[in-house]
Amino acid sequence: MIANTFASAMRWMACLGLLSALGLPTAALAHSNEYLATIKGDHGGLLRMAEMYHFELMVKNGEVQAWVTDHGDTPQSTQGADASLRVITGTQAMTVKLNPAGANELVGKDSRIRPAAGTRIILSVTMKGQKPLQVRYVLSDSNADHADHTGHADHADHAGHAGKH
User: Fold this and answer.
1) In this structure, are residues 31 and 71 in contact, taking their beta carbons and an 8 Å threshold?
2) Strands 46-50 and 105-109
3) Looking at the DSSP assignment, which residues form a beta bridge with residue 88?
4) What CATH number should be reported for the domain holding residue 65?
5) Helix, strand, or coil here: 69?
C-alpha cells in the first residue's frame, strides 16, 4: 500500500514538473525585450524593459514621449526622474533631455527629431532614488513610416489609417 501511494505521488510530481517546465519558456518570454519588440504599447509605441520597468516610446517629428510602467502595466511616477534620449541616424547623433509630465510620462521636444528607418535610440532614465537604466530601440520601416503623418495630405487615404492622423 505504501509503495502504491509513493508511486502515485511520484507520478503527480512528475506531471507537475512537466507542466511547470512547459510553462517556464512562456513566462520567461513574456518579459523579454525580444517579446516586447513584437507588440505595441497602450499608446501605440515601442516597448522595452529594464529592471522592474517597462518603457513605451513614441517618436514623432520634433517630439518624443515615453511612458513608464511596471511589469504589471501599473503606471510608475516619473516625478523626480532624470532622463535623456540619444538619437542616432546614420552618422548624425543628438541628445534630447526628457522632462517628467503627467503621472508616468517623460517628454522631450527638438525640431531635429526626424524618425527614419534604422534610427537607433538609447533611452537613459534614472527614476527617483534608483540606479540609472538604459533601454535601446531601433526604428523599422513601419515605425518610421507611421511615426507622424501630420501635414502629409497624401497619406489621408492610406489603407488602414484613414482618420487616424
Assistant:
1) yes
2) unpaired
3) 93, 120
4) 2.60.40
5) strand
Query: Rounded to 5 degrees, what are φ and ψ at 30?
Result: -65, -20
CA atoms 91, 92, 96, 102: torsion sign: negative
Measured distance CA(50)–CA(38) in Å, rounded: 16
Boundaries of domain holding 43: 33-149
Distance of CA 30 to the CA centre of its chain: 12
Alpha helix positions (H), 63-112: none
How many CB atoms neighbour CB 85 within 10 A? 23
Residues 89, 82: Cα–Cα separation, whole Å: 23
User: Grid coordinates representing 125?
Assistant: 532614465
In a domain, residue 49? The reply is yes
Q: 37 with 54: CB under 8 angstroms? A: no
Convert the pLDDT of each residue in 32-72 to its tens digit: 888 888 888 899 999 999 999 999 999 999 999 999 999 99
What pLDDT is stored for residue 29 in this prediction?
Answer: 42
pLDDT tens per residue across span 83-135: 999 999 999 999 999 999 999 999 999 999 999 999 999 999 999 999 999 99
The structural domain count of the chain equals 1
